[in-house]
Amino acid sequence: MVKLNTTFIISGGAGRVISSIPALEKYHRLNPDDDFKVLVSGWDSLFWSHPILQDRTFEANQKGTFNYHIKNNRVAVPEPYNVYGFYNQKLNIIQAFDEEINKTDDHSDLDEINLYTSSMEKVEGQMAYQHLLESSNKKKLIIFQPFGSGVRPSQNGPVDPSNRSMYPENYLSLVKKISEDAHILFISNQEQRHPQDNITQPINPQAHYFRHLFSLMERADYFLGIDSVGQYIAKAFNKPGLVMYGATSEKNYGFPNHFRIVRNPKRTPVYSPWRVSMQDTHFADRSNDQIMKFTEQDLQDIADIVNNDLNFKFSNLEKSEGGFYENNNTGEYR
Q1: DSSP 3-state assignment of 291?
Q2: pTM higher than 0.85 for the full model?
Q3: Which of 156, 249, 272, 320 places its Cα 20 to 30 Å from the Cα of 263?
Q4: Which among 59, 74, 102 is the end of a domain?
């Protein structure tokens, strides 16, 4: 019987694709004789410079994909959202990918998220970092992502039906409160910037946007954002930060032992079974409506934490009335 190599088809957005990397690395360790391939739609540059995955990863929508990468291989389409432990919030997405790809419930040997930059990208990142701070006369660089990929345009600004993104007026208020010593780089779509935002600077659009973002994140001092791709990149480059959560759970998508986690204590999110039960997802989105809306006091408290962090005064702040809850770096939540 002829032994077949494997082609993994990884679907979804950039954050989801990045989350598959530790399990794919583990598969390589456990199956050294499998000359496997990885197909992704639009995100192959995320794997550039990776010593194991760069030459195994291909764009899924290219001519010849079927004949060259699928026809003579065993195809696997891992779906972490279908994993029991994931939709019962016992596993995060990285562990769920491990269960799907490596058919195991032992996740103790999973590596960290490994993203790589080339020597030239490191130099470019350093030069960009210095230029941004010198041109703005600031001391620190914050990478800021207020919006996820699910936002939709409207007359009143971006709206996110998945309830993961900030409200435009909230994000503008927050950046006004952040340390005057910090230059804030806006990494969401430029068209989503608030019309009165004269504080943040949009990242320069480039052909390989994420490669540019990697090099900047590698040099940045802090990440501030929501549940989206930015937090995965920041975690990969071991950056401190604060992540605001709404409808999704840090148990599934976050890194509560690494980032400060903030959410609205007056609202408990309804689990959204995305990709599993779309009708229930629709009603979960309705139940979670406006869950990412913060009060001015909430935003001031968040800004205080960011400013303290930037000043190397890390505090374990917990509010029990009004305001918000924030993790104490132990993984325990109240």
Answers
A1: coil
A2: yes
A3: 156
A4: 102
